[in-house]
């Protein structure tokens, strides 16, 4: 969904967003239940959770850390270090398709599309370019997905630049 601003070549050299520090486990991608059921038949186990009565799965990465260092990274269970993500397009989490964008909820209840500040490729782009991209339909698409899948909404963090605000609730 971000192919206009992210090149496959840069991502292949980076893969930053497919590994997770212990302290950043809140960032691991979340999977709808139908995808969880499909992937579980392949031997991957998920932690089942619920948000606003909608179930979803979180992959279990905790066992993959070797130390208690909060900075230690563990690779996503679906990352092949040589070839990238092994998931089929239909199984790839929406969280990954929209990264480094996030839909977030502020303390006052406002929903926003915000930019994760750690993607090196996007950080080279002017913020205005990302705003235009989001305002030209992508933001609305993310908002509509979040209506059906509220688990993708994260709590707002003040270091994430806001690209678009919504004046309605999910
Ligand atoms: S962090 Fe950014 S540049 Fe790196 S792989 Fe992810 S999307 Fe691509
Ligand atoms: S599911 Fe695929 S794209 Fe998403 S973090 Fe894992 S390897 Fe990366």
Task: Please tag this protein with its features.
binds iron/sulfur cluster; single chain; four-stranded mixed β-sheet; 5 helices; alpha+beta
Structure, briefly:
It contains 5 helices and 11 strands, in the order αββαβββββαββααββ. It is of the alpha+beta class and 170 residues long. A hairpin with a 5-residue loop joins strand 8 and strand 9.
Overview of the structural elements:
- By secondary structure, the protein is an alpha+beta fold.
- The chain has one domain (8-166).
- It contains five helices and eleven strands, in the order αββαβββββαββααββ.
- It has helices spanning 8-14, 33-40, 94-98, 120-123, 127-148; strands at 19-21, 30-32, 46-51, 54-59, 73-75, 79-80, 84-85, 101-105, 111-115, 154-155, 162-166.
- The strands form four sheets. A four-stranded mixed sheet has the order 10-8-9-11, covered by helices on one side. Strands 2-4-3 form a three-stranded antiparallel sheet, with helices on one face.
- β6 (79-80) and β7 form a beta hairpin.
- The longest helix has 22 residues, at 127-148.
- One iron/sulfur cluster binds at residues 18, 29, 76, 78-79, 85, 87, 92-93, 96.
């Amino acid at each position: 969904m971000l192919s206009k601003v992210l090149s496959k070549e840069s991502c292949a050299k980076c893969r930053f967003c497919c590994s997770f520090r212990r302290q950043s486990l809140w960032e691991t991608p979340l999977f709808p239940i139908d995808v969880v059921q499909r992937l579980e038949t392949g031997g991957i186990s998920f932690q089942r959770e619920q948000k606003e009565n909608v179930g979803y799965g979180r992959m279990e990465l905790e066992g993959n850390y070797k130390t208690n260092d909060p900075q230690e990274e563990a690779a996503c269970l679906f990352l092949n270090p040589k070839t990238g993500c092994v998931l089929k397009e239909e199984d790839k989490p929406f969280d990954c398709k929209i990264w480094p964008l996030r839909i977030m909820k502020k303390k006052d209840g406002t929903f926003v599309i915000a930019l994760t500040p750690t993607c090196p490729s996007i950080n080279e782009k002017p913020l205005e370019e990302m705003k235009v991209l989001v305002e030209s339909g992508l933001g609305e698409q993310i908002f509509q997905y979040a209506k059906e899948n509220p688990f993708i909404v994260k709590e707002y963090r003040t270091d994430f630049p806001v690209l678009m605000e919504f004046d309605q609730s999910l």
